[in-house]
Specification:
Layout: E1 2-6, H1 12-21, E2 25-29, H2 33-41, E3 45-46, H3 50-54, E4 59-62, H4 67-80, E5 86-89, H5 105-111, E6 116-119, H6 125-139, E7 144-147
Parallel strand pairs: 1-2, 1-4, 2-3, 4-5, 6-7
Length: 180
């Protein structure tokens, strides 16, 4: 798989390195040139722009600090993406909700004329992915399926992880048959 990676910081660099170790072709972009050098040293390809990083990608991973940075690069990704592109926003913002001021990826895609759908129940995922494949082929555009488990998730970051004293119980998982 060919992967475009945007954001090669503290979290993005090791993620991209692991993808290279797994045998994927990774083209990365970052504002910091030394971070691209780290990717090159591990066998990846450096890009001079977001457009160059995503042009030939089957999958684009964004690892940026917060929603404003993500919102800045999404238009360029959509403009240069191939039909059928898979897109993962892995931002590590603490505010991970949609609506009421958070980023709504479905509305963002629709604003660019691209089909999008949000899935909130595990049992709906298979149909949504089938819809996305058919829609991408029919429309010849990038298609988004956003999977939301919770509307809001406040997550501790960095050294604050050590201060967590309260844990939520794990939800009961629903068995899903992914075979065809």
């Amino acid at each position: 798989m060919t992967i475009g990676f945007v954001g090669l910081g503290i979290m993005g660099t090791p993620m991209a390195a692991n993808l290279l170790k797994a045998g994927h072709a990774v083209t990365g972009f970052d504002l910091g040139g030394e971070r691209i050098e780290h990717l090159l040293a591990r066998g990846g390809t450096g890009a001079r722009s977001v457009a160059e990083a995503v042009a030939d990608a089957d999958l684009v991973i964004i690892m940026l600090p917060d929603s404003p940075q993500v919102e800045e690069v999404v238009p360029e990704i959509l403009e240069h993406a191939r039909p059928g592109l898979l897109y993962l926003d892995m931002d590590y913002a603490v505010d991970l909700h949609y609506g009421e001021g958070g980023i709504d990826h479905v509305k963002a895609m629709e604003a660019f004329g691209c089909p999008a759908r949000r899935v909130e129940l595990p049992g709906d995922l298979r149909d949504a992915l089938a819809w996305a494949s058919a829609e991408s082929e029919r429309e010849r555009l990038p298609v988004l399926v956003e999977v939301m488990v919770e509307r809001e998730a406040n997550a501790a970051m960095g050294s604050s992880l050590d201060a967590i004293r309260e844990f939520e119980p794990l939800p009961e998982l629903v068995a899903v048959d992914w075979s065809d």
